[in-house]
Amino acid sequence: MKRDYVSDVEALIPTLQRFARSLARNAADADDLLQDTLERALGRAHQFEPGTNLRAWMFTIMRNRFYTECRRRQRVRDHAAERHLDAADGEVAVLGDQMARVEACEFSRAFAKLSGDERSLLVMATVEEMPYETIAQLLDVEVGTVKSRVSRTRAKLRRLQEADSGLSLARAERPAAALATIAGSA
């Protein structure tokens, strides 16, 4: 393996770590994501084309690993939710008045409904605070296109959160029978 490649990858670790934390929102999951990304990048060094953007390549690997893990976890949650809805009314625990948790869940659900490109664009623009010019170079588009996409994605996220907020509050406040009715109609 080329020494320059390894040192270039090492130099990107702090940036990758911040990106992982912005995606995972959990230090342990972010560390796992970073390790998995580094392992894949080093194991597939022969696939990297010298002269191309290593940072963009590493971000793509990390983003794809994150989405794969999210899909796997969603399948597990869907399976658990099916079992939960099949439970008797007495077995269902309803959350108390934890508005912060409800709001965080609403954001997570809305964020999950965005496409992968939209999520990564928002993370780069807001969490990583990358300049629009850098994002435009990574995506190989014009700066104005990036600004427009970020604006449309933020608006879409707000609409999704507003649409979900009424349903989430209803789920938190209603008894288990109403929860099953809501889930059946969705």
Plain-language structure description:
- Helices cover about 80% and strands about 0% of the residues.
- The chain has about 190 residues and is mainly α.
- Helix 1 (about 5-25) packs parallel to helix 3 (about 55-85), helix 4 (about 100-115) crosses helix 7 and helix 5 packs across helix 7 (about 145-175).
- Residues about 90-95 and about 170-185 have low confidence and may be disordered.
Sum this structure up briefly.
This protein is mainly α and about 190 residues long. It has helices at about 5-25, 25-45, 55-85, 100-115, 115-125, 130-140, 145-175, 175-185.
- The portion of residues assigned to helices is over 70%
In this structure, how is the largest beta sheet organized?
Answer: none
Mean pLDDT: 78
| Class from helix and strand fractions | mainly alpha
Cα distance spanning the termini:
52 Å
Which value, in Å, is the CA radius of gyration? 20 Å
Number of helices: 8
Keywords:
single chain, 0% strand, disordered C terminus, 186 residues, mainly alpha
Topology:
Layout: H1 3-24, H2 27-43, H3 54-85, H4 99-113, H5 116-127, H6 132-139, H7 143-173, H8 176-185
Helix pairs in contact: 1-2, 1-3, 1-5, 2-3, 4-7, 5-7, 6-7
